[in-house]
Amino acid sequence: MFKIQTINNISIKGLERLPRQQFEVASEVAHPDAILVRSAKLHDMEIPATLKAVGRAGAGVNNIPVDEMSKRGIAVFNAPGANANAVKELVVAGMFLAARNICQAWHYARNLEGDDAEIGKQTEAGKKQYVGFELPGRTLGVIGLGAIGVQVANAARALGMNVIGYDPQITVRSAWKLESDVQQAHSVDELVSESDMITFHVPENEHTKGMVNAERLRLMRDGATLLNFARAGIVDEQAVVEALDSGKLHAYVCDFPSNALNRHPKVIALPHLGASTHEAQENCAIMVADQVREYLENGNITNSVNFPEIYMPRADSGDRLAVVNANVPNMLGQISTALANAKLNIEDMYNKGKGDLAYTLVDVEGKITDEVLARIKDIEGVLSIRVIE
Fold first, then answer.
1. What pTM was estimated for this model as a whole?
2. How confident is the model at residue 59 (pLDDT cuts 50, 70, 90)?
3. Domains of the chain as residue ranges with CATH
């Protein structure tokens, strides 16, 4: 039986994918085989020696020490695309809120005083302060064309907007889903200089941190709108506030409140609502639970941020060996030799690398003994090893 520790509340729809006959699932579990987490930070957590996998019920993995997990041969899974529709809807809502000055107008209206006749007079007198603009014909720039960015781009096209996209690492899968008339930008600078609205759908890392700074803000069209439902650090807040104050930017709509933003009249800062729908939470939990289960039961990998994607059907009989190792030469040869010396015939084998890591699945005819396991574990570069019976 596998032991699964849950950190945060994981949707019951996801936990139902882990049958009780094979999985013990609880928030307090000794010696867990896997951890399921949403937003809790694991950086200061002591990593159990038994841990084989971490499943993040969401897309970003900033709350997980991925490098440390990799060093220990622990797979980290996420759920890319499971919350894409929820984020897309919020981005589209943000465009309407900014274009029509809805939040500012609502604030004005809810603070009107007097009898209904007086409120009516103030309504007519004040509405001219909140004249907005329509979206058709405007240009939306989408930085990051993964699952979310593609949906946002396609939704904007359906609204009659022109769309420019930038993603030098776009996958074939995403490209197939993207509307054919979405234009390609060859750089971030090109995109921001040609867009009326700009939205970001990239992770925060050394390449994207501070992507929107004072220099790039100067390249933007006067009266442009920024939308950030990705990560706070992508945007230099102080530079954005200065651009809002000068009139360079019309509005900043984001999911990350702060002291610098919260009371600014041109900022709409929401409390990190991007994936906060029942449907998104269920989709994320189901996806990551299925991936962790498949990894524990069969060793197959889908949507791991640190391991290569591998799927190998199980052989009819015999044990399966799963090895995580440094991506160095002659590792397969050493594993094969150890199995051959134990007179274990290899029925099927699959090896794939990802960066500094490699992952190997081997199906053998017969049983893999503890002695053979120890011999392979002693090979220099092997990070973790297990037998799946």
1. 0.82
2. confident
3. 1-82+275-307 (3.40.50.720), 84-269 (3.40.50.720), 313-389 (3.30.70.260)
